[in-house]
Amino acid sequence: MSGTLSLKEKLLITGSNGKIGSALAEGLAPFYDIVEFDLPGQDATDYRQLCERLAGCYGVVHLAFDLKHENSRTGANGNPENLLMGQNVLAAAAKLGVQKCIMASSVNAARTYHPTNWSYRTTKLQLERLAGEQALRFPGTDFVSIRFGRVTKDDQPPMPPLRDDQTWLSHRDAAALAHAALSGEPAPAEHVIVYGVSDRPDPPYDLANPWGWSPQDRFGYDSLV
To answer: What is the pTM of this model?
Structure first.
């Protein structure tokens, strides 16, 4: 009915127009009142604007990232605004007493075979470290970093044969993991880092997590059922 107030908690998603953001916005809509936050209208480098949109929200999922100018091919010349956006979200979540703060990281954050000057990995690891510091300083907010596998716009998995480190995360599994993190109860003052990868033979990552999440979709098997 027009004008009916939603009884769902508000959830802010930065980078809501991206592949992961769009998948989460759709998958989490049944559980939360989604507050979209993305360029060109909203900018996470603007701390005041971010706080205005985050006020009254139960949680925030931070996905905004300038991947074009900070990836495996840009070396040490990344975009410093990526770090600033993450710092702003961490600070705003603590200031406003947001209950859940999920920082999007990447499975690439743990890879060691890239050059040490790969700024993408450096930025992701630094934001994880800062989230851990915030968790100790502000135990009233749960800080979680999810190292996402590859999410595709068409939600189609890669076909075998797979690389040893091949990842894929279905839209359904991504939303279910985010929902588990948002609704679960991590230990106080603990920053939780988990991997989000759909099921594959001989998985390269440990998917252990505090909430009992396990992927429902699979890839790389002879028969996908």
So the answer is: 0.92
